[in-house]
Task: inverse folding
C-alpha cells in the first residue's frame, strides 16, 4: 500500500510524504516515514499496533520526519510487541533522542494507563552496506546501495514473500545496483521526477539553481525509471515519490508516457492509499 507518494519535505494537500507499507499475515512492514505516516496508516485501515518492522531508505526529512512519531503513536494505539527498525546512521541516536524528548509523556502513560515500557520494545539496526537484512516467517528482506549523494548511504529494499516480490527504490539516480536487486521482481516502486517541470518547482526557493542541480543529480526521470524496470525484467512498475509532487501541468498521462518509452510491462501512477 502506498501511504505517501509526494517527493520533498514541504507539506501539501495533494499528497503525503514518502511512505509505503507491506502487509503480510497481519504484520505491517513500513518503508520510510514521511510526515503523516501514522495518520495515513489509519486512513488505509492498517492497525498501528500491527507494526513490526520499519525500514528507512536514507536520511532525508521527507523519509524520516515521522519515524519516531510512528512508533510512539503506534504504542499509544496498543502496540506492545517488539518493533525492529533498519536504516542508515544515525538511526540509533535518532531513536534514543526521540524517546528522551518525549519521556514525560511516555512515563505518564506507563504510570497512569498501565502501558508497557516503550523503549525496550524497539530494536535498532544500523545498515552500512547492501546485502541480506532480515528474514522471518513472512518475508525475506535484502538491501542494496543506491545513488543519492550527498545523502549516503542510501538504500533500496527488496521484499520476497512466498507469492511475490516487491522492491522499493528509495531516492536514487539511475542505479545498476537497483537493476540487480530488482531482477525478476513482481513489483518495483520507483521514485520519479519530470525534468521539464523542475524549473517551476525550484522557483519557490531562494537558491533555485542549487536545488535544481541537486534534484537532477540524485533523482531518476520517469523515462529512465522505465529503463531500469525493463533492464530488471520486473512485471509492474509503480511510479511514486513524484518530483514535482503537485504540478497541475504534469498529468498522469505524461508520467505514463514517459515511463512507457522503455518499459513493456504494466505501469501504475501511484496515488496515496493505493493498494497494489
Result:
Amino acid at each position: 500500500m502506498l501511504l505517501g507518494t509526494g517527493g520533498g519535505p514541504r507539506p501539501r494537500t495533494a499528497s503525503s510524504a514518502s511512505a509505503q507499507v507491506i502487509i503480510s499475515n497481519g504484520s505491517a512492514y513500513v518503508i520510510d516515514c514521511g510526515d503523516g505516516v501514522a495518520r495515513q496508516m489509519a486512513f488505509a485501515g492498517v492497525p498501528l499496533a500491527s507494526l513490526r518492522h520499519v525500514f528507512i531508505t536514507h536520511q532525508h526529512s521527507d523519509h524520516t520526519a515521522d519515524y519516531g512519531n510512528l512508533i510512539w503513536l503506534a504504542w499509544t494505539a496498543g502496540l506492545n510487541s517488539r518493533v525492529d527498525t533498519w536504516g542508515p546512521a544515525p538511526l540509533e541516536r535518532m531513536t534514543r533522542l526521540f524517546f528522551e524528548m518525549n519521556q514525560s509523556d511516555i512515563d505518564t502513560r506507563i504510570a497512569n494507563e498501565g502501558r508497557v515500557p516503550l523503549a525496550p520494545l524497539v530494536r535498532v539496526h544500523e545498515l552500512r552496506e547492501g546485502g541480506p537484512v532480515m528474514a522471518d516467517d513472512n518475508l525475506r528482506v535484502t538491501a542494496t546501495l543506491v545513488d543519492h549523494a550527498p545523502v549516503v548511504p542510501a538504500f533500496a529494499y527488496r521484499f520476497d514473500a512466498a507469492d511475490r516480490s516487491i522492491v522499493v527504490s528509495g531516492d536514487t539516480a539511475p542505479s545498476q545496483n537497483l537493476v540487480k536487486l530488482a531482477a525478476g521482481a513482481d513489483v518495483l516502486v520507483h521514485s520519479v521526477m519530470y525534468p521539464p517541470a523542475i524549473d517551476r518547482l525550484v522557483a519557490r526557493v531562494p537558491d533555485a539553481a542549487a536545488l535544481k542541480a541537486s534534484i537532477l543529480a540524485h533523482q531518476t526521470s520517469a523515462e529512465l525509471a522505465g529503463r531500469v524496470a525493463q533492464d530488471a525484467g520486473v512485471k509492474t512498475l509503480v511510479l511514486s515519490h513524484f518530483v514535482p509532487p503537485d504540478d497541475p501541468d504534469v498529468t498522469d498521462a505524461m508520467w505514463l508516457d514517459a515511463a512507457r518509452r522503455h518499459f513493456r510491462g504494466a505501469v501504475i501512477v501511484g496515488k496515496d492509499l493505493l493498494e497494489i
